[in-house]
Design goal:
Elements (H helix, E strand, L loop, with lengths): L2 H12 L6 H9 L3 E4 L12 E6 L3 H10 L5 E7 L3 H11 L4 E3 L2 H5 L6 E4 L6 H10 L3 E5 L9 H11 L3 E4 L6 H11 L6 E9 L22 H4 L11 H5 L10 H18 L6 E7 L12 E8 L8 E8 L7 E8 L2 E6 L4 E6 L19 H14 L2 H4 L7 E4 L6 H15 L7 H20 L3 E4 L4 E2 L1
Helix pairs in contact: 6-7, 7-15, 8-11, 11-15
Length: 464
């Protein structure tokens, strides 16, 4: 029996995260067992934390809602470059809410403890650095940088200021991902060799053709501030503002928006610091709406052997016009099974497949090409050497682990962030971890546009 398998069976027998009695009895009758994961009990607030959100788009509003799910958190202000979103923030959170179109007004306020940076990608790094230097804790949406060259400076500022800094890839706080990591480390799938991860979408909204407001014009948008750090300036275009993910000048395409989620989860479960080489290809196949990033993209990424893990390869794919519909998964494949993570960090399954000890004979084999006498001789010798049990694969039913109904990993991610502010406990996704996930994702863009393999030094976090 392999060491990995022995570790898994030992862990399997002592696991406390099992089903309720009803699910246990059901599992005895069903081939596929389902186990409900337990949520951590969050303690009530021991002091008040006042936050402000910079960028009140889709993620800004959702992040604010998740942050306010943590006891003792209050919203002290919001910033956005479109007046309509500031007006809506007052509709939701009250007319007394402080609003501004200049993020520096937020950072100057002494009554704000932490900021959520949920702007377009091109502003993540600069606003986060400004906020840390002003003594604010920072929750930065992913990717934490717009360009790989920004990463080491942001890490340096975080270490210099000792500010609490967390990146917003919420799946690393998910109870499902924590359990998947536990099972992986227990040897549930044997020795890892490859990972397949993807996001499929099949809708205009899924492809970032977001609704543009009728008053989304130059009078209601601070266009000059929005593109102040862009290398090339453009005349006002509402699509470039409200659908910024489609443009390299402000967003990071499917790689920075979605590959980074996949890599974050992969690094969390495997303990990896990052890959050695990255190569990607892509096309703009369907959503030809002015965007300058692909809507179908694939990458092959190689992870070399380290003290944390054996060597393995990763294939990443995003398809914005997939006939499979909206579907995403991460399959971590080992020598004895697969961990299949689906959805947004709320469930995963383990499917085991273990080779028999005997090598096999007959079937799709050269045996039938020999003389009958030779076939009989070889079969006889085989059956004498290997028992029936050794000739058969062990049968292990699949298991699904699932979060409780209504579970939201974003709420847990913000609970971790607020706990770090209150207690000094390390965050779950700090600047180093966040950059080590973001940089290979952004390197996929570099590989695509430059048409070459990108070599990455994961330890020192730099392009080779």
């Amino acid at each position: 029996m392999s060491t990995d398998r022995r570790k898994f069976l030992k862990h399997f027998g002592t696991s406390v995260l099992l089903t309720s009695a009803s699910l246990s009895s059901l599992a005895a009758k069903e081939e596929h067992e389902v186990r409900i994961l337990r949520q951590q009990k969050r303690m009530s607030a021991n002091d008040r934390i006042r936050i402000a959100t910079i960028g009140m788009g889709i993620m800004g509003f959702n992040d604010t809602k998740a942050a306010l799910s943590v006891p003792g958190v209050e919203l002290a202000g919001v910033c956005d470059l479109y007046k309509g979103r500031l007006a809506h923030a007052k509709e939701v959170y009250g007319n007394d809410l402080f609003t501004t179109m200049d993020h520096r007004d937020i950072l100057e306020r002494k009554d704000i403890d932490a900021v959520i940076v949920a702007t377009s990608d091109n502003w993540h790094s600069q606003i986060s650095i400004d906020a840390m230097r002003k003594g604010k804790a920072v929750y930065s949406e992913k990717p934490m940088v717009h360009k790989i060259s920004q990463g080491l400076e942001e890490i340096r500022v975080q270490k210099e200021t000792k500010a609490v800094f967390q990146v917003g890839s919420q799946r690393v706080s998910s109870i499902a991902y924590r359990k998947a990591k536990e099972m992986y480390e227990a040897g549930a799938i044997g020795k890892i060799n490859s990972i397949e991860a993807s996001f499929n979408r099949q809708s205009a909204l899924g492809a970032w053709q977001y609704t543009i407001p009728s008053d989304g014009n130059i009078q209601n948008v601070d266009w000059s501030r929005y593109q102040a750090n862009a290398d090339v300036k453009h005349d006002f275009d509402p699509k470039r503002f409200f659908r910024w993910r489609n443009y390299r000048e402000y967003g990071t395409g499917v790689a920075g928006d979605l590959f980074v989620h996949l890599l974050t989860g992969i690094h969390f479960i495997t303990g990896s610091k990052g890959p050695e080489s990255i190569y990607s290809i892509g096309d703009l196949t369907y959503w030809k709406d002015g965007r300058n990033v692909p809507d179908v993209m694939s990458a092959v990424i190689h992870y070399g052997e380290t003290k944390e893990h054996p060597s393995f390869q990763v294939t990443l794919r995003v398809n914005f016009i997939s006939g499979e519909g909206d579907y995403g998964t991460t399959k971590i494949i080992g020598s004895e099974g697969v961990i299949d993570l689906g959805g947004e960090g709320d469930s995963f399954s383990i499917r085991k497949s273990i080779m028999p000890e005997a090598p096999g004979i007959g079937g799709w084999d050269s045996l039938f090409t020999y003389t009958e006498a030779e076939q009989k001789k070889l079969l006889s010798e085989y059956n004498q050497r290997w028992t029936k049990a050794q000739q058969e694969s062990p049968t292990i039913d699949p298991i699904t682990y699932r979060a409780p109904e209504g579970y939201n990993s974003s709420n847990d991610h913000f609970a971790n962030f607020i706990e770090a502010i209150r207690t000094g406990k390390p965050v779950i996704e700090d600047a180093v971890f966040g950059f080590r996930a973001a940089a290979p994702a952004l390197a996929c863009n570099d590989s695509y546009f430059q048409k070459k393999v990108i070599h990455w030094d994961a330890e020192n976090m730099k392009v080779v």
